[in-house]
Design brief:
Length: about 110
């Protein structure tokens, strides 16, 4: 199994968390995400995620007024609600993940 599949479910939450802090364009979001998870995302993947989040009403994007074809994204009230709904499940999953990491470290090759 590729490690990217394990991260896939949390990247949307990470995008929403970063957009809660400030409005950003896709390239800036991509750089933050790549730095946080320490992997390079496939070309264009961040824009597919942003498009899906926008389609679901969790973020909204609008073109910047400077004439460039850059879209700036911000989180919506629905996105904030969606993010908050994941606090408890993430706490539970983090316990399991920490346990698994420690157990895997103890496996003898």
């Amino acid at each position: 199994m590729k490690k990217e599949l394990i991260l896939k479910g949390t990247i949307n939450l990470l995008i929403l968390t970063e957009l809660y802090k400030e409005k950003m364009h896709g390239y800036a979001i991509e750089k933050i995400i790549c730095n946080k998870i320490n992997i390079e995302m496939p070309h264009g993947a961040i824009y597919m995620l942003l498009h899906n989040l926008e389609k679901r009403g969790f973020i909204k994007g609008k073109r910047t007024p400077n004439g460039r074809h850059v879209k700036e994204y911000e989180i919506t009230d629905s996105g904030i609600k969606f993010l908050k709904e994941h606090e408890k499940p993430l706490e539970k999953v983090s316990i399991v993940i920490n346990y698994l990491i420690e157990e895997i470290k103890n496996i003898n090759d």
